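Kindly review both lines to help learners:
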Amino acid sequence: MATRHEGRQDATGGDAAAAPDATPVRPGPAGSGAAEGRAFIGSFTHAGGRGVTAASVDPATGALAVTGATDAVADPSFLVLGPHGTVLYAVSETEEGTVAAFDTTGPVPRLLSAPVPTGGSGPTHLAWVSGHVVTAHYGSGSVSALPVRPGGSLRQVSGRVQHEGRGPDPERQAGPHAHQVVPAPGGRLLLAADLGTDSVHVHALDPATGTLTPRGEIPLRPGSGPRHLAFHPAGRHVYVLAELTPTLTVCRWDPRGTLVPVGEVPLRPDGGEGGAAYPSGVAVAPDGRFVWAAVRGDDTLAVLAVGGDGERLTPVAHVPCGGRWPRDLTVDREGRRLYVANERSGDVTWFDIDPDTGVPAPSGSVPVPAATCVALG
């Protein structure tokens, strides 16, 4: 399996105290009528993480309160909830590559069945789409699909696509490194950002058979290293985050499967180049007015305003991420708060978003060693 250097050694989580085994679940404010939410946090167990950590979400403040954790799966670096929120899926970012399904109805996630091999090494991302869990593999540079049983557990791999090619960076791009897979609106087409090939691959998923068919490959700037991408809610534009050059590429999306790059925006103030910076995650406001990107090294969140029906991005601000080495970020479904998983400082920080400017202000944090991502229920 190729090693993901990401410009640093793996996190140790040594800067944060371990989270308690159980924290009382906090009820919502009296008379609010708001239901308490759930959050699930991934982490690197090899670096001191506790696996999958569960937390309650205060409906009034967005605050997280840890309810427990499970290390039943090694290095669950990325998580996604199924459509009903009662089953959580986690990749195990290991050489053999597996994915696991957890029941989330209790205070601590519980394995539904033994983890299932993904058919690739080093899976870094997964998505639920059309009755399948689809995984992207950094190590093997491939994408796999696994059918989901009615109860939420997983069947064996039903489809797999192998990427080919390499970029100009001899260390990071010696071969394909599929870093993320995202369903396009409608769920029949998938977009896979590949850091190693400097491109976005488009694959078709057959929901009846679970097979995957390559539909095209869109090249981006050589050496940019596409890592993650996100759709504008209108479905006509895609924002592709480059890890090796701190930029965000705006692309037009044709639902027939065509992606056309139309512009590039720097993610550092004034396009600055001082010191190493490695963008990690991108999130779009539910109303489409703002885009946020996490930048490791700088340890900042870049805020961009969206105009031109999604095609024009204007930098607004760069704010501290609330910790060190922000590996991923998540916006809640109302667009009121951001949650940032800070891997090196070992915590998750949440921010209140200014509804007029999109600028996030830190509101609180909770220790989660070697945190990698946050999935909101």
